[in-house]
Amino acid sequence: MGLTISSIFGRLFGKKQMRILMVGLDAAGKTTILYKLKLGEIVTTIPTIGFNVETVEYKNISFTVWDVGGQDKIRPLWRHYFQNTQGLIFVVDSNDRERVAESAEELSKMVGI
User: Fold this and answer.
1) Are 91 and 21 in contact (CB under 8 A)?
2) Which Gene Ontology terms of cellular component type are present (predicted)?
3) Binding residues for Mg(2+)
4) pLDDT class for 14, splitting at 50, 70, 90?
5) How far is Cα 54 from Cα 67, in angstroms, rounded to an integer?
6) Can you tell me the distance from the alpha carbon of 76 to that of 36, in angstroms, rounded to the nearest whole number?
7) pLDDT tens-digit series, residues 24-79
8) Of 24, 45, 51, 80, which one has the greatest count of Cβ atoms within 10 A?
9) Which residues are annotated as a binding site for GTP?
């Protein structure tokens, strides 16, 4: 009985876990966004080789955000991070108009369109 009440209470009021994948072309601003969400401020970043993982808390949800590098040699690896995620953030630098079409192409590859 106690276990049942505890289980119900946990589902109603417990912290939910969400795994989020954040990808986009290199220099799109993924890492800047991640640390703005995590720390509440803009920090100086360097190009991501591989990935960054941070936990961001919001209300009763704990988001584990995977920020994966966007260099063209890393992009084929994105799909390996996509499994078991509950959300995808695809970052596009709207100021870099010359690369918007490239962003659209990479997003299409990512989601299989």
Assistant:
1) no
2) Golgi apparatus
3) 31, 48
4) confident
5) 8
6) 27
7) 999 999 999 999 999 999 999 999 999 999 999 999 999 999 999 999 999 999 99
8) 24
9) 24-31, 70
